[in-house]
Specification:
Distance between the termini: 34 Å
Structural class: mainly alpha
CATH class of the largest domain: Alpha Beta
Bound molecules: tryptophanyl-5'AMP
Radius of gyration: 21 Å
Strand content: 5-15%
Order of helices and strands: EHEHHEHHHHHEHEHHHHH
Largest sheet: 3 strands, parallel
CATH topology of the largest domain: Rossmann fold
Oligomer: single chain
Length: 331
């Protein structure tokens, strides 16, 4: 089976973007691939989380993944920091990463803007660590949202560069993956960009939101009051809501509102009510299951431990070969 790797940072509650950009793919892929899914706890340290919050956040990401439909019997679930082999290969790979190329990465530039008081070296080398997460398992497919596309390109570059320098084919070149043709980007509800964990809470739908919160957030979602003119394309804010509908509502419901736009009979209040109910029906079962799972920390720890063992075994093989190729073999 082909190897798949993907990770999620434990920086807050998971939201609809994480679900439809990443987790939805995980669930389908677990049937056909050898999947390694992990919690990227080292990556989250670039934003200096409170040590008291970290264990709970890691457990919750795990619980929310399983509640969404991941079967721990089928996939390998682990915490990044439980696989120290990643840290060693990261050190080695840093020697092949150029400061110039890292400084040009858009996500790095964003962080410099967002946290100018904390531009740590971990932020700069973030894509190296991410590449190593993937390469150390020799993964070929990486299910991620659109915002990670550039990082995947870098992972391919590093794989190529290492293979070329040490005249090997140790690392396959991994590809960003989504069922469907292109990578997904779920918009925020206020029309200000993509949905994200750190953003305005009212513009983000979390898998942990209760029913009324979900309804309320959708009710307050932005809809341009721009004149509804036949034949004109929908304004982005309306299109965003239709796009969300396509994810959770029945196809005939989506068609109904698209037609209503075309013939100028659309009523945003009704549309939001419908979307609110469909969203509640989608999120509620995941939320309830995640809540139960989070109580069972023994179970979650057991899964994490078993996952780490498997991830380490596979990673150790790759690392051993990398060391040898580099010339770090003395005994
Ligand atoms: P993170 O934790 O920010 O997000 C986890 C996953 O959710 C996707 N995602 C979205 N997809 C569509 N629309 C959105 N609005 C949206 N917001 C988030 C992300 O694309 C991602 O797939 N660097 C990664 C974590 C990581 C990783 C890796 C991923 C570390 N090492 C190795 C894959 C392979 C990150 O910060 O994701």
């Amino acid at each position: 089976k082909e190897i798949v790797v993907s990770g999620i940072r434990p920086t807050g509650y998971l939201h609809l973007g994480n679900y439809f950009g990443a987790i939805r793919n995980y669930i389908r892929m677990q049937e056909d691939f050898n999947c390694y899914f992990f919690v990227a706890d080292w990556h989250s340290l670039t934003t200096h989380p409170n040590p008291k919050d970290l264990p709970g956040n890691v457990m919750r990401v795990l619980a929310e993944n399983i509640a969404s439909g991941l079967d721990p019997e089928k996939v390998t679930l682990y915490a990044q920091s439980d696989v120290p082999e990643i840290a060693e290969l990261y050190l080695l790979m840093n020697m092949l990463a150029y400061v110039g190329e890292l400084e040009k990465v858009p996500t790095f530039k964003d962080k410099v803007r967002l946290q100018p008081q904390n531009v740590n070296a971990g932020l700069l080398t973030y894509p190296v660590l991410m590449s190593v997460d993937i390469l150390i398992q020799r993964a070929v497919k990486v299910p991620v949202g659109k915002d990670q596309g550039q990082h995947l390109e870098m992972a391919r570059n590093f794989a190529q560069r290492f293979n070329h320098r040490y005249d090997t084919d140790l690392f396959p070149e991994p590809e960003a993956f989504n069922y469907g043709d292109s990578l997904v980007r779920i918009p925020s509800l206020d029309g200000s960009g993509k949905m994200s964990k750190s953003e305005n809470e009212m513009a983000t739908l979390y898998l942990a939101d209760d029913d009324d919160k979900i309804r309320n957030k959708i009710k307050k979602a932005k809809t341009d009051s721009a004149a509804v003119t036949p034949g004109t394309p929908m304004p982005e804010s309306v299109q965003n809501l239709v796009d969300l509908m396509k994810l959770v509502s029945a196809p005939d419901v989506v068609q109904f509102y698209e037609a209503a736009w075309d013939n100028q009979t659309i009523r945003f209040g009704d549309m939001k009510k419908q979307l609110g109910e469909d969203m509640v029906n989608f999120i509620a079962p995941i939320r309830e299951k995640a809540k139960d799972l989070q109580q069972d920390t023994d179970y979650l720890r057991k899964i994490m431990k078993a996952g780490a063992e498997k991830a380490r075994a596979n990673a150790a093989q790759t690392l051993q070969q990398a060391r040898k190729l580099i010339g770090l073999n003395y005994y």
